[in-house]
Amino acid sequence: MGQNLILNMNDHGFVVCAFNRTVSKVDDFLANEAKGTKVVGAQSLKEMVSKLKKPRRIILLVKAGQAVDDFIEKLVPLLDTGDIIIDGGNSEYRDTTRRCRDLKAKGILFVGSGVSGGEEGARYGPSLMPGGNKEAWPHIKTIFQGIAAKVGTGEPCCDW
């Protein structure tokens, strides 16, 4: 799903940096599905963060629960005030509320977002349901509404 979301963002003019804990997956992705695109890769979290424009917008697509918290814990020391972490793993709303509160105290904005439509939706237009620290919305709105599915009138299937 992550690869398809990255390709969707690329198709809509956004430059994306791909990272996976299994570095060979990034290498394979760049050599195959993302070949000829503007997608860039990173071999480490530190490298990924260094390649992102501020405010950094980082989408996590990991299993809901402890894995999200573990990843956030690794990311926070690398981020600056105003950076944004987006959980695209359909986490439980109480976890999103807790993460919003805890990260805001550190100056980092958190968004929890449902991503509906499966792998094909991720590639060609998911329904996105973001919520969390509303101050993040102006920084992600163009991306989210750009890649989202559209209804007949062209209205994106995404709003705060």
TrEMBL record:
InterPro entries: 6PGDH_NADP-bd, NAD(P)-bd_dom_sf, Pgluconate_DH. Residues 1-151 form the 6-phosphogluconate dehydrogenase NADP-binding domain. One of its GO terms (molecular function) is NADP binding. Pfam families: NAD_binding_2. It comes from the Eukaryota. This is PGD isoform 8.
